[in-house]
Amino acid sequence: MSLRLGIALVGALLLTIVVGLVWMPYDPIAIDLVHPLSPPELKHWFGTDEFGRDVLSRSMLGARISVLLALATVALAIILGTALGLLAGYLRGWTDRLLMTLTDTVLAFPGILLALGLIAVLGSSDSSIILALATAYTPSVVRVVRGTVLSIREREFIEASRSAGDSALETMLRHVLPNILPPIVVLATSLFGWALLSESALSFLGVGVPPPAPTWGNMLSDSRPYMDVAGWLSIVPGLCIAGTLLGVNLLGDALRDRLDPRRLS
Amino acid sequence: MLGYIFKRLLLALPTLLLVAVGVFLLIRLIPGDPALVLLGNDADAASLAGMRADLGLDRPLPVQFLTWVEHAVRGDLGRSIVSGEPVSTLILNHFAVTAVVVLVAVTLATLLAITAGLVAAWRQNSSLDLAVVGAATVVLALPSFWLGLVMLLLFGVKLGWLPFVGYVPFSESAAEAALFLVMPIATLTITESGVLTRMMRASSIDVLQLDYVTHARAKGLAESTVLTRHVFPNAFAPTLTLVGLTLGHLLGGVAVIETVFTLPGLGRLMVDSVLSRDYPVVQGCLLFTAVVYVVVNLVVDLCYPIFDPRVTAR
Q1: Nearest C-alpha neighbor of A146 from the set A59, A235, A82
Q2: Which of A219, A240, B96, B151 has its CA 20 to 30 A from that of B39?
Q3: Range ranked top by mean pLDDT from A127-136, B161-170, B222-231
Q4: CA A73, A116, B266, B179 torsion: positive or negative?
Q5: Closest by alpha carbon to B273, among A203, A121, A201, A217?
Q6: Residue of A nearest to B283 (CA)
Q7: What is the chain A residue with the closest CA to B279?
Q8: Residue of A119, A117, A196 whose CA lies nearest to B267
């Protein structure tokens, strides 16, 4: 039941993005000063904002931007974190100790504040948001990957690969990596949710994706002055974020139930 | 016990050192003269020269770092470019607001999570359990800033029950200040309770299946005694870890909620400083939040032996 709801919500999101690639009811950044703040009606299903821009079209483009940013963030964090986690867990010794101290250091900063600090230095742009959020999330990937590698490296098939004369790199890539994929997939799902939420939060705080490009976060942020007269401006992007997160979380839970080795045995 | 405390303190030192290095280097990553970065573009030649001497820009980087650490340890984090106030004063003033909101909210969320998690686990797969799990899952998907906005719209704008713009410090009127804090605290409590409830429920389910719980029941103990005296102490450890992590991170500033409710907290200070490129304040905030995080987790680790005496033995 919850799996079906998860699939339905994520499916609806993907459908919105695909449809948005070929068709949107209006130009999402076209300003129409004759019809500002018009409530939801047949012409504008979700109403218009303070500049008369169609909220449905903006939400559709916002879906694409938010999801792409979150995907890029997760991809970067997973690749970097997996590489470092493999090294730390497989090589042990000083590499491990050094990498773990570094991870602990980054983890000492609250994710959003670390991202804020980095954006202060890097400037506010799409790539700096991705870089800043990926930096904040990489340590948790390193920890999960390292933990899994530690339990796998003592198994017989790794021993066999080593005694067959494979180099450390070969053993890591050919034998360790494929066996740590399930927890990585599960982690990637929850990271995606966090990344989406953090990106919205950064945009809400005014340091995210620069205008006029819409994201759900900056739409929410821009809606604040008109909250009492145009409630739909806050409701629509909020429901978009909540629905997407709910879908992704439900999928993630279902995935964990299937892939968790503890539950399989 | 003393040995355990000492070992934990020793482990925290390298992290603190690296945190300091990271925050120090952050400002050096910005292209240009660090003195100009720290004083802003309006600085006159004399104060620039003073700052350069202060930072020791002609000396090697490690020496500059040590000078900076020495100042920081004495509580001197420089001055804000925007207001000219000492960064440490700014941070402490804003921290007071954040601390009240976060401490109250996390306490409430933990109590809520313990109760809901224990009861849900006790009657696993009942409709009560489903309701708890469902609510926790929905709460996890709610962005805190949206929840805050909806509350503000409902209780502030539509019903007019609670004030929502601005803030009155406790020193002026405790009653009014408390009114301003109701909605931020409620929002934070709700958003934080989701994860904690799921964690508490999961570990309680594991503990409930252990033999000693069956034994306690076989002795004829009341179910409430079994839950509070036997299940809770053993199921709480993972949740306590999570409370520590949550507390450590939130005390650094709940930027989003402070923005929604226009509270002068630490997170808001950081966001405003980022927006106005007030680098000394950004640097100070980052250092402060990381130190708070390390200290809070140290305290939580030191609390473990109270719940689980085996920890000290390790």
Answers
A1: A82
A2: B96
A3: A127-136
A4: negative
A5: A121
A6: A117
A7: A120
A8: A117
Q: What is the dihedral of CA A163, A168, A170, A172, to 10 degrees?
A: 110
Question: Exposed, middle or buried by CB within 10 Å (0-12, 13-18, 19+), for B187?
Answer: buried
Task: Note whether B162 and B174 are within 8 A (CB).
Answer: no
| Residue A73 DSSP SS3 | helix
Is residue B63 packed enough to be buried (19+ CB in 10 Å), middle (13-18) or exposed (0-12)? exposed
Q: Which of A226, A221, A188, A189 is nearest to A202 (CA)?
A: A221
Pair of tokens at residue B157: 């704008």
Q: Residue A54's beta-bridge partner residues?
A: A48
Identify the burial level of A264 via C-beta atoms within 10 angstroms of its C-beta, where 0-12 means exposed, 13-18 middle and 19 or more buried: exposed
Spatial separation of the C-alpha atoms in residues B77 and A70, rounded to whole Å: 35
Q: Which residue of A has its CA nearest to B24?
A: A117
- What are the pLDDT digits (tens) for A81-131? 999 999 998 888 898 989 998 898 888 888 888 888 888 888 888 899 999
Note the pTM of the prediction, 2 decimals. Answer: 0.84
Q: Which residues pair with B86 in a beta bridge?
A: B79
Query: CB pairs below 8 Å between A and B: how many?
Result: 126
User: Measured between beta carbons, which residues in chain A are less than 8 angstroms from residue B255?
Assistant: 112-113, 116, 201, 205
CB atoms within 10 A of CB B20: 19
Structure-token match 């018009």, residue found: A38
Distance from CA of A108 to the nearest CA of B (A): 5
A160 to chain B nearest CA, in Å? 33
CB contact under 8 A, A220 and B273: no
Amino acid at B238: P
Query: Chain A residues with CB inside 8 Å of B273's CB?
Result: 120
Residue A148 to residue B95: CA distance in whole angstroms? 38
- Give buried/exposed letters for A7-43 (b at 16+ CB in 10 A, else e): eebbeebeebbeebeeebebebeeebeeeeebeeeee
pLDDT given for residue B308 in this prediction: 67
Q: What are the backbone angles phi and psi of residue B79, rounded to the nearest 5°?
A: -120, 150
Q: Which residues pair with B247 in a beta bridge?
A: none
Asked if residue A139 lies in contact with residue A107, where contact means CB atoms within 8 angstroms, the answer is: yes
Summarize pLDDT for A145-175 with one digit per residue, the tens: 998 888 888 888 888 888 888 888 888 888 8
B291: left (phi over 0), alpha (psi -120 to 50) or beta: alpha
Nearest to A252 by CA among A185, A173, A179, A178: A185
| Chain A residues within 8 angstroms (CB to CB) of chain B | 2, 101-102, 104-106, 108-114, 116-121, 193, 197, 200-201, 204-207, 220, 223-224, 227-228, 231, 234, 237-238, 241-243, 245-246, 249-250, 253
Give the phi and the psi of residue A249 in degrees, each rounded to 5. Answer: -65, -45
Q: What ipTM, to 2 d.p.?
A: 0.80
